[in-house]
Write a structure and sequence with these properties.
This protein has 808 residues and is mostly beta strands. It is built from seven helices and 45 strands. This is TonB-dependent receptor.
């Protein structure tokens, strides 16, 4: 098989150029857990190198998604997003149910060798001092595990370098005419300690100004689902009920969705001898945000009405270690990590009125909640509803792998992976005006502890706050064990056969309670209207167990060093899931919530190509694929059954697609680089097992039929050793639906985003002026209608900024 001469110590962007030779450079990735050129591996992989990341101004999760066709995300802002690849998606969880009730993501997220994938939403890691971002499309489970069902995203950091002292300072400021200003600073230093030791540190702060306005509005309990079509009291004469208004006049604010990222990363490298190296690292990050990052389509652009404060403090710490070495012809690696994430948030829950059948029980007089006639009289107090949420996860991972000499005709890689996650969640659903009802009825305020016979599974075994009406107090554990391996055999100089497999064993368990304080007015006894998960998940329902074997076979043809073609069959999976409301039944008896959702699986068939053409001035990579999805896990919210989210294996589906990317160095204009990519998808639900929620024939959510990007950059000499540049890009996405559950879905419009950059640089510094979202497009990048009202997340309005980088 043909091999390329690559400089393994230097990873450069796919769009970068060599002005002297005007030829494409190699991009080295570790997508196969060995260092290889992207052009030498039979995987659909996109790599944004360090130079591309800087040129495109990529700093956080939302930035790099815009430049990756075939990759989308659901969620509502920083720290809340879930990644989707190739349209393999079903449901995006609400922030307040993103932990213990969250499905395992089907795209794995890695920081170097450390998997950081968590239920419901991924860590939003700031892109500071990164060497590259790798996106591996299609199932990667034979090498990367359970959540690699649809693909894997890897953020690869720069490592300590013992050869020289170096550093970098980056800073920027930006002005958003329809919002508040932003500013950021990042510092990096690399310090050799000896010929074989070095440390590297990065510190960053990024304050991003808001652009969503919280405008005046009113709400009353009259809007509760209980009084609407299909509600329990539909058609009742409510003219004698005094519906008090929630009024947010004291909370209105322009540009109220501010967010800041701050953190550091410290790593140390020790070359123990010629064969062994130890790498240690620690990282810490905090995200502090206020407000929401979506608009209400019923109001003006960039406007929403919120009645309680929305805040999020999302912190994580990561400790990791990697030992690499060689014994004879074998390369060995052991890597481990411990990650702790703590998220505290308050979320305005007033939108829940639209689906909450039981809200009047808590904030209306007894005569209204339980009318004795068709014309009740009484008071429904202002429906100021919010949730205080505490989520803490602790994850430890360990991986040991061995690889043979990669220059041999037969090459192998195998290993063992283990992870243990504990996720504790305490959600307190709070209705502040209920105390007025209690006082009016002569009831002493006070609530019993949450199942006082047993300690809290989350953090607080004490009394509930008097305003708390419902509480989730749950411990979720996920344990995974996997044994994996791949073999590559060169049948001839041109053909290579790859075969891989993974055996996995996974257990998911829930402990704690999901309980209401209704019916316990003034009681000091344990809650009697709740759900003890320790009792629910016992016996045959003890844990959700998943085990099995998946495989992969790929045949690669390399007719010469500039062409590679491959065909691949591969499988992927994600773990099963326990349902807190297991056993609940629809009023008409047509549906019963299962105690557990089983594994859902994908089978991927793919033909791909990697081409370097026109004397290495044009690179064109692409693939055609078909994905068969069986027993797709779907998150469902239906208050006629239960007021808790639950999951079921609701459907089979399929995805057909074509995707590609190119980089072109036109010979008629030295210094010009043109690059881009596209994704064409056709998705369909082929069979629905729960037709009351999922419709056969519908498209999968967050699966645009067309996505495309185009980027042009021109560089020229303006003085000795100094370059000027201009760059422009455009990204386009077709319209999408936001949920596979028809009742919870809305359609997002198609959009395009334009950006331009101009600047000067030399060997040490770069200064740039840029404009993002040049046309001020309201690009609808995410959204939901879980509470029967549309909420649409839009891209940041037009932003003008300056950024400066200095290497020393």
């Amino acid at each position: 098989m043909f091999k390329r001469n690559a400089i393994y110590g230097v990873i450069i962007a796919a769009s970068s150029i060599n002005l002297a030779h005007a030829q494409l450079e190699e991009v080295i990735v570790t997508a196969t857990k060995t260092a290889s050129s992207t052009q030498d591996i039979p995987i659909a992989v996109t790599a944004l190198g360090e130079e591309s990341l800087q040129q495109l101004g990529i700093s956080d999760f939302s930035d790099y998604l815009i430049h990756l066709p075939g990759v989308t995300a659901g969620g509502g802002g920083p720290g809340t997003n879930t990644i989707y690849i190739r349209g393999v998606a079903s449901t995006t969880p609400n922030l307040t149910t993103s932990g213990v009730a969250g499905l395992a993501p089907n795209v794995a997220f890695y920081l170097d060798e450390q998997p950081l994938t968590q239920p419901g939403r991924n860590l939003d890691v700031y892109a500071a001092d990164l060497n590259r971002i790798e996106v591996l499309k299609g199932p990667q489970g034979t090498l990367f595990g359970a959540s690699s069902q649809a693909g894997t995203v890897r953020m690869i950091t720069n490592k300590p370098d013992p050869s020289a002292f170096s550093g970098k300072l980056k800073m920027g400021a930006a002005y958003t005419p329809e919002g508040d200003p932003s500013h950021n600073v990042e510092g990096v230093v690399n310090i050799p300690i000896a010929d074989n030791m070095a440390v590297r540190a990065v510190v960053y702060v990024d304050n991003q100004g808001g652009y969503i306005d919280n405008v005046a509005g009113t709400e009353t309990t009259r809007q509760s689902a209980r009084f609407q079509a299909g509600g329990f009291q539909e058609g009742a004469d409510l003219s004698a009920v005094d519906f008090r208004e929630s009024n947010n006049s004291s909370k209105t604010e322009d540009n109220f969705n501010e967010v800041s990222y701050s953190g550091f990363r410290l790593s140390g490298l020790w070359d123990i001898n010629d064969d062994w190296t130890l790498l240690l690292g620690v990282a810490q990050q905090s995200i502090d945000s206020e407000g929401v990052f979506y608009q209400d389509p019923e109001l003006e652009e960039l406007e929403v009405s919120r009645y309680e404060n929305d805040t999020l403090d999302d912190d994580f710490e990561n400790y990791n270690w990697t030992l690499t070495g060689r014994m004879g012809t074998l390369d060995l690696l052991y890597t481990g990590a411990y990650t702790e994430r703590e998220s505290q948030s308050q979320v305005d829950y007033t939108d829940y009125l639209n689906v909450g059948q039981y809200i009047p029980y808590y904030i209306c007089d007894y005569s209204v909640s339980y009318p004795g006639d068709a014309a009740p009289a009484g008071t429904c107090y202002a429906p100021n509803l919010f949730i205080k949420s505490y989520v803490k996860s602790e994850v430890q991972t360990h991986e040991f792998r061995i690889s043979t000499d990669q220059s041999g005709r037969l090459r192998g890689l195998g290993g063992v992976f283990y992870s243990d996650m504990e996720l504790r969640e305490d959600n307190q659903f709070t209705y502040p005006n209920r105390n007025k009802i209690l006082a009016a009825d002569g009831v002493t305020v006070g609530w019993g502890p949450n199942f006082s016979a047993q300690p809290s599974s989350a953090r607080d075994p004490g009394q509930w706050s008097p305003d708390v009406s419902f509480r989730n107090d749950v411990l979720r554990t996920d344990k995974q064990l996997g044994v994996f391996g791949e073999l590559n055999f060169d049948i001839s100089d041109q053909f290579t056969l790859t075969a891989g497999a993974r055996w996995y064993d996974i257990e998911v368990d829930l402990k704690g309670s999901a309980a209401s304080s209704f019916g316990n007015l003034g009681s000091t006894e344990s809650n009697n209207s709740g759900q003890n998960l320790d009792e629910l998940f016992s016996g045959e329902n003890d844990v959700a167990k998943t085990d099995g074997v998946i495989g992969k076979v790929s045949l690669t043809w390399t007719p010469n060093q500039d062409q590679l073609y491959y065909v691949t069959w591969s499988e992927g999976y994600r773990p099963g899931f326990l349902n807190r409301p297991g056993g609940r039944t629809a009023p008409d008896g047509s549906y019963t919530v299962p105690f557990a959702a089983d594994t859902d699986e994908v089978t991927n068939y793919e033909f791909g190509w990697k081409l370097d053409l026109l004397d290495d001035t044009l690179r064109f990579n692409g693939d055609i694929f078909f994905v068969d999805i069986t027993d797709l896990q779907v998150g469902i919210f239906d208050t006629s059954i239960t007021n808790l989210f639950f999951a079921d294996n609701a459907a089979d589906a399929e995805v057909k697609g074509v995707e590609g990317e190119f980089t072109w160095l036109p010979q008629f204009s030295t210094g010009l680089t043109v690059s881009g990519g596209f994704s064409l998808l056709d998705t369909e639900v082929t069979d629905s097992f729960v037709t009351s929620f999922v419709r056969e024939g519908d498209s999968l959510p967050f699966a645009p039929e067309v996505q495309a990007t185009l980027n042009g950059r021109y560089e020229w000499d303006v003085a000795s050793g100094r370059l000027a540049h201009v760059m422009g890009f455009v990204s386009y996405s077709d319209k999408v639906n936001t949920d596979i559950v028809a009742a919870n879905s809305i359609e997002l419009d198609s959009w395009y985003l334009l950006g331009v950059t101009a600047g000067l640089s030399d060997d040490q510094w770069t200064a740039e002026l840029y404009v993002e979202n040049l046309t001020d497009e309201r690009a609808e990048i995410s959204g939901n209608a879980i509470f029967n009202v549309s909420r649409v997340t839009v891209a940041r309005p037009r932003t003008i900024g300056l950024r400066f980088a200095y290497d020393f």
